[in-house]
């Protein structure tokens, strides 16, 4: 069977089409939307499995890290195929391993940011002029949402300290990257993800970013007991390093908020190595390195 997900830069319409094709081939997949972006684009969610124990994977928080969306869709496709045909996935009997699991995959947390990084200000409605003024002539490296807020600096965890560090770097208002908003959880994309996590019991969460081949697993003082062990397994499987983020990347992130809010494990995985946006031609080799880690994360 021909693969649905391939190494092509997907824009928002492509992502919607690909999800539709996955659903058509694998009708047991459940597809919904957790909310809408600033410009009104849906934030899609794929559900695989019917169990009580839920695990969440999310990607494309940052526009220039669109490759993480392809990665999550590619993983969803391989997992669906293995379940449908009762095949092993990295030597794991996934039908059995997923019996008590429900995997929530959110491949595109920041649809507007990804669209800007790929197509510039096109399709950003009334925010077009604003985006043009913030991007400094190049859209490719755009990370924020369409209002110039960095979603992964907008979660309510160590947010005030993060704002101080932003100010020290001269980031005082909307920007293409690293501005955390005027208050935490101010953005529709952040609100949608927080509401989902508050209304649904999730045992652990993994946020996919690029790049660095690094796994971050800690935040604050109260670390969930199984976090370190899980991170060690993830590192052993992928060959990625375990690390502590630099000060400007500490706080305000989804992983930080999830750990603080629920005292359950959450991880940030920085896939690939190079300069963002990573060439989409690297998707296959990156996927090869992390697919076993991804299936382990789903069933751990
Ligand atoms: Zn990122």
Structure description:
The structure is a single chain. By secondary structure, the chain is of the alpha/beta class. It has one domain: Aminopeptidase (3-Layer(aba) Sandwich), CATH 3.40.630. It is 38% helix and 17% strand. It contains ten helices and ten strands. It has helices spanning 12-25, 67-84, 94-97, 111-119, 128-135, 159-168, 188-199, 227-238, 254-262, 283-299, and strands spanning 30-36, 42-48, 53-59, 88-89, 92-93, 101-106, 202-210, 214-216, 241-243, 266-271. The strands form two sheets. Strands 1-2-6-3-7-10-8-9 form an eight-stranded mixed beta sheet, with helices on both faces. Strands 4-5 form a two-stranded antiparallel sheet. Helix 8 (227-238) links the parallel strand 8 (214-216) and strand 9. Helix 2 (67-84) crosses helix 10 (283-299) and helix 8 (227-238) packs antiparallel against helix 10. The longest helix has 18 residues, at 67-84. It is globular. The chain starts with 11 loop residues before the first helix and ends with a helix. The mean pLDDT is 96. Bound molecules: zinc ion. Zinc ion (ZN) is lined by residues 61-62, 65, 152, 209.
What is the structure about, briefly put?
This protein is α/β, with parallel strands linked by helices.
